[in-house]
Amino acid sequence: MQLNWDDMRTVLALVRCGTLAAAGDDLGVTYTTVARRVTRAEKALGQPLFERHPEGYVPMPLARDLAVAAEGMEREEHQLLRRVTGKDQTLSGRLTLTAPQLLIQAQLAPVLKRFIDLYPEVELVVKASNDLLDLNRREADLAIRISSEPGETLIGRQLTAQKSACFAAPEVAEAAARSPEAPLDWVLYTHHKAPPKVAWAIHPNSRVRARFDDMVALKAAAEAGMGALRMPVFLGRTSPALVPLRHLATMTYAPIWMLTHKDLRQSRKVAALKELLVPWFRKNAAIFTEL
Hints:
Elements: H1 5-17, H2 20-27, H3 31-45, E1 50-53, E2 56-59, H4 61-86, E3 93-99, H5 101-118, E4 122-128, E5 142-146, E6 155-168, H6 170-178, E7 184-189, H7 197-202, E8 206-212, H8 215-223, E9 229-232, H9 233-237, E10 243-244, E11 251-260, H10 268-283, H11 286-289
Parallel strand pairs: 3-4, 3-5, 7-8
Antiparallel strand pairs: 1-2, 5-11, 6-9, 6-10, 6-11
Helix pairs in contact: 1-2, 1-3, 1-4, 2-3, 5-10
């Protein structure tokens, strides 16, 4: 009896994800490949690993045992590859960066352009996401995160502090400044319970008109005049259809961090990108803190 690493890794992904499609996305293969590998592993072991249900795959005890063993093998693999990458002093090959999509769109794209111009042999892969990608699993080599708790297991530095402010379409902002006692409509991010406290103090008749789970949609709603919103100063600066409610104070917002795994701190490619990002944020700190 023999199991190959691809099959064990596939069992682990299916235990983690629960469905063929999700496991395939995690591994970068098709769901049919996941199904074929799981079936191959079951044939090699002579017993089933999962209960098949319409809503997904439920791991049996043997699958969970295999997943534990595969996790240990995976950690060793990632550790070895991180160390190899960390010793790489070339300025060629792949470098993966993860950063929030709106931060790239609003500010960082020119910095990344400068990087690829300077180092044409580096294949820059950018994962534009707010998801906290796992640097231990090598999902990225360098991460830029907006967070008050960036991660204790990583090597990092704070690039800049941040402020947020209240913005609205010009007619909404003018009406709010002119008549604080009048009702002021707001659009909120889904997880925010109420408008900012600085707004309640001046606009006691504030009312929530809609909630959105995406900042791009939230901005569009504010631009259409649905109401005011709170967002980071750097984002408001690049929203020409919105103006700040200047009679409302700015508020503290989560800072921006640059993070990498300790095994990659000697990588020349990682260092080269850091050497562009750090001075750029130092020079442009006001973009993130001042209206």
